[in-house]
Specification:
single chain, about 120 residues, mainly beta, seven-stranded mixed sheet, four-stranded antiparallel sheet, about 0% helix
């Protein structure tokens, strides 16, 4: 089972980026997906999660209203549209999938599979 994240880069504050994560090795459409991030010197934190059909989403307070998580089950993919980016959004972003849950969690321990991470840098 592999998750491959991409789409990170350098952007100015107020700009936008779209992260993508494609899974392989199993049918991810049956399970929730999530995004987490880890800034330098900080612990990994929850960003967003989406249920297996995409009907239920959840966001951290710090990104609510600016980020949107979505998925395309036909492509085994999950996306994170990030708008109005701030310097404090700078981090390595990871996609993640649980072993069997259909609905996501804010707890990183609930996720079994992790992507390699993609770096997002927001300049002021």
């Amino acid at each position: 089972v592999q998750l491959q994240a991409c789409g990170g880069g350098l952007v100015q504050a107020g700009g936008s980026l779209r992260l993508s994560c494609v899974g392989s090795g199993r049918t991810f459409s049956r399970y929730a997906m999530g995004w987490f991030r880890q800034a330098p010197g900080k612990e990994r934190e929850f960003v967003a999660t989406i249920s297996w059909k995409g009907g239920t989403t959840d966001y951290s307070e710090s990104v609510k209203g600016r980020f949107t998580i979505s998925r395309d089950n036909g492509k085994n993919a999950v996306y994170l549209q990030m708008n109005s980016l701030k310097p404090e959004d700078t981090a390595v972003y990871y996609c993640a999938a649980p072993r069997s849950a259909s609905f996501g969690s804010q707890w990183s321990s609930s996720y079994e599979y992790w992507g390699q991470g993609t770096l997002v840098t927001v300049s002021s």
